[in-house]
Amino acid sequence: MAIWEWVLEAYGRPGVPEACLELQDRFGQNTSFLLWAVHAETANPELLKRAAAAALAWDRVALTPLRASRRALKAPLPPVPDAGREALREEVKGLELAAERLLMETLEGLSRGASDGAPALAALEAASAAWGPPAPADALAALAAALG
């Protein structure tokens, strides 16, 4: 299954959205990168290092600015009409999702054929460490459990 279809299916599972948001907002993790590692079934340090570098650059250039804009557009901003602001926010949200999809598809291209069969928790732990300061083990375990 292609990564984007897998992510959409996985994100529909109970607990996955909440676990992803906690890892992103509380612990500074890139959930697209984490989910890619689970899908790729990899804990390979060299592959994760290359993928993290690509994800960090994309995060800085595209994802973080789009996410910040989407969040900033959530609150009313008089005299801008609410309907127009909300419509723009939805467009930015669509761009943010497109940026996440492009990142995941890029990472999938890097990992094609490189799976080492890592279980979800091992992939999450290795990817979290490759991203930067690793997230707490219980937060990663919660995502692994929600992913099944």
Commentary on this structure:
This protein has 148 residues and is an all-alpha fold. The chain has one domain. Helices cover 74% and strands 0% of the residues. It contains 7 helices and no strands. The longest helix is centred in the middle third of the chain and has 30 residues. The two termini are 16 Å apart. The mean pLDDT is 96.
- Mean of pLDDT: 96
The coarse silhouette is elongated
Strand content: under 5%
Main sheet properties? none
Please report the number of helical segments: 7
pLDDT < 50 stretches: none
> Into which percent range does the helicity of residues fall?
over 70%
Structural class: mainly alpha
Number of domains: 1
Radius of gyration: 16 Å
Index terms:
148 residues; mainly alpha; 7 helices
List the SSEs and their pairings.
Blueprint: H1 3-11, H2 16-25, H3 31-40, H4 45-72, H5 82-111, H6 120-131, H7 137-147
Helix pairs in contact: 2-7, 3-5, 3-6, 4-5, 4-6, 6-7
Give the structure's gist in a few sentences.
The protein has helices at 3-11, 16-25, 31-40, 45-72, 82-111, 120-131, 137-147. It contains 7 helices and no strands.
